[in-house]
Every structure is written in C-alpha cells, then in structure tokens.
Amino acid sequence: MKYLKQFLIILAISMIGEILKYLLPLPVPASIYGMLILFVGLMTGIIRLESVREAGKFFIATMPVMFIPAGVGLMASWGVLKPVLVPVSIITVVCVFTVMGVSGVVTQFLIKIKKNR
C-alpha cells in the first residue's frame, strides 16, 4: 500500500504538470513542470522525501528500459539519419564537453564561494 500511495503522489504531481502545460502558453514540457513542482515541494517540506522515496527508487531502477523504444526508433529511421550522422555526432561531442566544462567551472566557483564564507 505504501508503494501505491507514493506512486499516486508522483502521478498527481505529473498530472498537475500536464494541466500547467495546457494552461500556460510557454513551450515547456509537462514533465519539466512536474519535476519543478516535485522539487519545490521537497525543498519546502510540503512533500516529505519519505513520501516518494521508494517509488522514486523504483522509477530510477526501471529507467533504462524506457530508452529501448528510443533506440529502436533510431534504428528504424537509420536511412534518414545516415546522411547527417557526422554533423550530429560532432555537435553531440562538442555539446557534451561544453556541458562538462561549464559544469566543472560552475562547481569550482560555488566551492570557492562556500569556502570564503
């Protein structure tokens, strides 16, 4: 019963995200609204971590299975992707290293600020 309650809390937050996506004229996916609501709820204490911890662990454990349809979709559209494979690969590698670099610099900056306090 505990898992059902936790799942329903996450499902309700996801539903609120879907409603916000429908109501607000912003190009933001409903899942982002849901994650922000859950984050704010957890940070403010409105939602206790124990209220969603086990269901969250279950979702994280089953997450790799969710990538299978995307992989199959890539394989099915190989003919369309083949001509642009090199540019997309280069862009992907550049973006990955850019995100890693920026994340490292920001992290070092935040650590330095915390040490100075």
From TrEMBL:
Membrane topology: Multi-pass membrane protein
GO molecular function, one term: hydrolase activity
Keyword Transmembrane helix set for record: yes
Record's signal peptide: none
Keyword tags: Cell membrane, Hydrolase, Membrane, Transmembrane, Transmembrane helix
Any Gene Ontology CC annotation: plasma membrane
Localization (cell): Cell membrane
Transmembrane helix in keyword set: yes
InterPro entries: LrgA/CidA
Protein name (database record): Murein hydrolase regulator LrgA
Transmembrane segments: 7-24, 30-49, 58-78, 84-111
